[in-house]
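Side project, low priority. Logging it here so it doesn't get lost.
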Amino acid sequence: MVASFLLKALASDTNKQILDTILDKVHRGMSPQQIASHLNSINLKTIRGKKFRTGTINMYLKRARELQLV
C-alpha cells in the first residue's frame, strides 16, 4: 500500500515536470512535433516509459487547458 502511494506521488511529480517543460516550449513557440522530438532527444520518456509523440504532447496541452494552466 505504501509503495503504491509512493509510485503515484513520483508519477505525479514526474508528470508535473513534463507538463512544465511542455508549457515552456509552447511559450517559446515550438510545435507539438518539435516538443516531442526535443523530449525524445534528451531521452525523456512518458509515464509509461514510451517515446513522446505529437498526440502525447497534444494530450498534455488539452489537460492543461482543461485545468486552465494555459
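Brief comment: The chain has a mean pLDDT of 84.
Revisit when time allows.
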